[in-house]
Amino acid sequence: MDRRLLIVDDDPLLTDSLGFLLQQEGYDVAVAGTGSDALDIVRTSPPDLVLLDVGLPDLNGVEVCRRLRGFWNGPVIVLTARRQEADKVIGLDAGADDYVIKPFSSSELLARIRAGLRRAQQSVGGPTIAGELVVGELRINRDARTVTMAGQQIHLSARELDLLLLLAERAGMALPRRYLFDTIWGPRFYGDERALDVYIRSLRKKIEPDPDRPAYIHTVRGVGYRLEAPPDA
Fold first, then answer.
1. Which class is 132-227 in CATH?
2. What is the chain's alpha carbon radius of gyration, rounded to the nearest angstrom?
3. pLDDT band at 81 (very low <50, low <70, confident <90, very high)
4. pTM surpassing 0.70?
């Protein structure tokens, strides 16, 4: 059965062109021009993924995302023309899984969609088990707050574990530095942001086979960090 995607945008030129592209890729496409319509569609006929524009004529896209998270857990990719890091962070805080900055290439968007659908599938039927996140040979048990790499237990501090959990919950996605810092240390912390890099280095020493050549925790220049399994894991 074709995957069903919902495009939420009030620009008919974009929804027409994007809808055509996605249909050519084999997706079933629905369109909503307002946030209210999007919420109604998701309630009555839940899609597999939502592409959500930030600038909508009624509800702000971030508010739509917050409301969606009250009753639906599917992947949301925010579409935004804003390049400020703060806008990305707000979208992630509202519950978005990923973001794409306009103008975007077709290949980039399609890759993000495939990744979002793949993560959603893994969360319900892949290697992840209840209370546990699995990324390659890395296993994190949320409830027990334990970590193993290739079957060997890894001892982490509370803050190291919180940071690793945050990266693992959105594995494969580049998370902005500001988002990571604010989530772990809190937006009212006015210390040195380089503390984040110190913790990343510490995590790499503990979980990476070769910390000087990270296979799991990757630096994304100009953005932040991404956790993903190496191809051979």
1. mainly alpha
2. 18
3. confident
4. no
